[in-house]
Write a structure and sequence with these properties.
The chain has 579 residues and is of the alpha/beta class. The protein has 19 helices and 12 strands. The radius of gyration is 36 Å and the shape is elongated.
Length: 579
């Protein structure tokens, strides 16, 4: 809760002003029944019209002030609640940007989306109700009860009985529903996950005619959410019956005993009229409080979920005195072991010893799950090693400023991502200050100019979200060009030419040799033709180094490499390579 309220920042003033205006509004409303009693007792029953006019005018003025204070309280409440929500979204988003891959692995993407949308909206609505109604209702309750004590201490005891009864009922409901709402938002995550997965893979769904299956999966998630809400709302429905029991108990009790007191002469007609007004004010404030309870029950679960993201600290941090300059593109793995879940005993990489000279071209090959992507993720410090050290330019990557390191280690990942905007906008992710000519040169090196020149708008062609309007091979080439614009000391291609034909693949590798000879190039691939021209080739098997040598030597000495080579050559070579 402290972490959430800390985000009020510049909106604290509006919050306090809202509370002040709400308090003044309550004062005006509380005094109105008291003035009504004076009109009846001193004006109507005494036959004094001047008193009626005076107190009537006073009531009009107080009602107008109540209206003004109420309107101002509403404006300040809207400003502070919306401001809190805006700051919360920004704080959550900013914290997510600092997460390492291992931090992101703890939260599902749908879960993070739900926290930034549904959960923050719940907190915004609850906060608005709290600073308006949760301030107004208790003040109304206290002041109404004080006025009842002033008018008739004996009749006021009836209100205490009603308040205690309602407090017990509402408290019980709140405790139970809070547990249910904690589970409700987990169901929201499941629902969002179903929608996101279906939409992102809609082509696959339609290709395999699985719309019916996806509909059933969504309906199951939706039904689970429906049942949880019905259960929670069913419990909250007891609020109104309990409230009506308390209202009628107070009305009947005050009517019965008030009539006796009037007959005895210890209570005037005006006082009894005021009491009825205060009864309704008191019980209406309790009714408003019960509504606040519902919102608080929902928002507490949301507050907890938002707090989890705000409290999450990045696993990877910059050192106290970071190194900002990367000397060269040399890469050294010194007895490196790594697992995605530290301490699990299931290593993705075990005892890796590698030494790559600056400017070398290194091919990496191995079966699925052999640890190829894990290996290169450690070079740019997307994860930290469990044991040993990874060095770039002779310095442990943990000693670098992460931004400086990643600017010099450019990675084209397996999952190529383009963003909505023009081709030039996407290319300049690699270098925001790159000129048009530099972008064109990078595209030529990545063989992307071949298809860009055929587009009607050329480099100004708009890329749809996720690169939906370009092919897989075109997307890969644009991502390679984007990486080249960074002019890195180490370039890593993680299976990034799998969607291009072998002829284009060869052109890209030839361009690398000519245009970035001093850059260390690490190429992960599934086909031998992509790596056989490398200076040395690394063969990985079950997270361990099985071989590290030239293509010719590996064919002689390494069984795994020879098996891969023969299976591809005897099988007729790559599908797009001439026999």
């Amino acid at each position: 809760m402290k972490k959430v309220l800390k985000q009020l920042k510049q909106y604290k003033k509006d919050t306090f002003l809202c509370i002040s205006m709400a308090a003044l509004e309550v004062v005006m409303e509380i005094l109105l029944p008291f003035v009504t009693a004076l009109i009846i007792d001193q004006g109507l029953e005494a036959g004094n019209l001047s008193k009626v006019y005076f107190y009537g005018a006073l009531m009009v003025g107080m009602a107008f002030l109540s209206l003004v204070f109420g309107a101002m309280a509403g404006r300040f409440a809207a400003s502070s609640a919306s401001g809190l929500a805006a700051n919360l979204r920004q704080a959550v988003y900013d914290n997510i940007q600092t997460f390492s891959f291992s931090n992101i692995d703890k939260f599902s993407v749908p879960g993070l989306v739900t926290r930034m949308t549904t959960d923050i909206t719940n907190v915004q609505n609850a906060f608005m109700m709290i600073i308006r109604i949760a301030v107004r209702a208790p003040l109304m309750l206290v002041f109404s009860f004080i006025m009842c004590l002033v008018i008739s201490p004996r009749l006021s005891s009836m209100f205490l009985i009603a308040v205690v009864f309602l407090a017990i009922v509402i408290g019980t409901i709140m405790v139970v529903t809070l547990r249910i709402f904690n589970r409700v938002f987990q169901k929201y995550d499941d629902l969002n996950a179903s929608v996101q997965e279906n939409i992102s893979a809609i082509r696959v769904v339609k290709a395999f005619v699985r719309e019916g299956y996806e509909n059933k999966k969504f309906a199951k998630a939706s039904q689970g959410l429906y049942r949880m809400f019905v259960k929670a709302e069913g419990l909250l429905a007891f609020n109104n019956p309990a409230m009506m029991v308390a209202v009628y108990f107070c009305i009947i009790s005050v009517s019965w005993f008030g009539a006796q007191f009037i007959v005895e002469g210890s209570l005037s007609t005006g006082d009894l009229t005021s009491l009825f007004s205060y009864i309704m004010s008191l019980l209406m404030s309790l009714m408003m409080l019960s509504m606040v309870v519902v919102m608080i029950s929902m928002s507490l679960a949301s507050v907890r979920r938002i707090g989890e993201v705000l409290s999450e600290t990045p696993d990877l941090r910059d050192p106290d005195q970071p190194v900002y300059q990367v000397a060269d593109g040399s890469v050294d793995f010194e007895n490196v072991s790594f697992s995605y879940k530290h301490g699990s005993g299931k290593n993705a990489l075990s005892h890796i010893d590698l030494h790559i000279r600056s400017g070398e071209t290194i091919g990496v090959i191995g079966g699925t799950g052999s640890g190829k992507s894990s290996l290169v993720n450690l070079i740019c410090r997307l994860y930290d090693v469990d044991e040993g050290a990874v060095k770039v330019g002779g310095v442990d990557v943990r000693r670098y400023d992460m931004e400086a390191l990643r600017n010099q280690v450019s990675v084209v990942l397996q999952k190529n991502t383009l963003f909505s905007g023009t081709i030039l906008d996407n290319l300049r992710w690699g270098n925001p200050d790159a000129t048009d000519q530099e972008c064109i040169e990078a595209c030529k090196a990545a063989c992307a100019d071949e298809f860009i020149d055929r587009l009607p708008d050329g480099y100004q062609t708009r890329i749809e979200r996720g690169g939906a309007n370009v092919s897989g091979g075109q997307k890969q080439r644009l991502c390679i060009a984007r990486a080249l614009l960074k002019k890195p000391k180490v370039l890593i291609l993680d299976d990034s030419t799998s969607a291009v034909d072998t002829a284009t693949d060869a052109k890209i590798r030839q361009a690398f040799a000519q245009k970035i000879p001093g850059t260390t190039k690490i190429i992960i691939a599934q086909r031998i033709s992509s790596v056989e021209g490398a200076d040395r080739i690394l063969v990985l098997d079950n997270g361990q180094v099985n071989g590290f040598d030239t293509h010719e030597n590996l064919l002689k000495t390494n069984a795994i490499y020879r098996e891969i080579y023969e299976s591809q050559v005897k099988g007729g070579g790559d599908f797009d390579q001439p026999a």
